[in-house]
Amino acid sequence: MDFSIAWQKINQMGRDFMALLPNLLFGLVVFVVFIFVARGVQSLVERLLENREQSVSLKLLLSRLSYVAALILGVLITVTIIVPGFTPASLLSALGVGGVAIGFAFKDIFQNFLAGVLLLLTEPFKINDQIAYKDFEGTVETIQTRATTIKTYDGRRVVIPNAELFINAVTVNTAYDMRRLQYDVGIGYGDDIGKARQLIIEAMRGVDGVLTDPAPEALVVDLAGSSVNVRARWWINPPRRADVMAAQDRVLEAIKNTLTAHGIDLPFPTQQILYHDQTEATDGNRKSQREGWPAGEGEVPQPRAEAQREQPAAAETAAPPR
């Protein structure tokens, strides 16, 4: 067998490798240098942003992007040194349709990445803010380039893609220093509304943590089936979940104790079923409003009890003597 052709090929590959070896070694040295340069750029960006008022996640993002950008630049220069005929333009042309396919395949990743960058730049919420998104509510732990993680109040972690947070409504409970809370309190129809409102306001003013400015208030909001509903509203600071629950606990306890001590009824829902004919004389007392019908004017039917008392007397009068 003739191995001369194979030997020539191997010999040619060896000469090509030896010719490429200086460029390869120099390219590797340049790449190692760029690794240190990228780390230096990252440290420089971190120092420049250290005293600025950006969020922690934004500073981390900018430092990582600077590191990746410097590293990509080093890779391109290294490849250019090793392969002298290589240019960035040739790389783009080599990608061609493949780049479009990759773009479609990683569309969601790119979308979440861009949404994460915009969230970090616009800062609708920050780390340690408490937000509510659909059925999830908790404290923001991290804002990454792909997703945001929150810790729910019952100790669970929820990972939400950034694109959803960017295009949907998100409630930021800690966006402002103060937060208003409210609760509806039902009092009896026979109770004095003005007195009950005053007692509710006084009870809220005496609770630790309830702000005096804005002042607490009590508003009649509903004439319900079994009660007159008065809405108690008060403000707290800070507005975090633990403070909300603690303030509501103290306020409701104070309102209940105050109303009970002053004889204000706190009725529970009741239902009364009446069987009667409103046209009969033995219906209710039509001189006053009862059981849902209006009071009559002028001559009105007798009350049921009075009619029942008159019936035995009329029967005795009509009875013949023995």
Automatic annotation (TrEMBL):
Keyword Amino-acid biosynthesis (UniProt): no
Annotated membrane topology: Multi-pass membrane protein
Predominant localisation class: membrane
Keyword tags: Cell membrane, Membrane, Transmembrane, Transmembrane helix
Localization per record: Cell membrane
UniProt cross-references to Pfam families, sorted A to Z: MS_channel_1st_1 (PF05552), MS_channel_2nd (PF00924), MS_channel_3rd (PF21082)
Biased composition (Low complexity): 301-322
InterPro entries (alphabetical): LSM_dom_sf, MS_channel_C, MSC_TM_helix, MscS_archaea/bacteria_type, MscS_beta-dom_sf, MscS_channel_2nd, MscS_channel_C_sf, MscS_channel_CS
Name of this protein: Small-conductance mechanosensitive channel
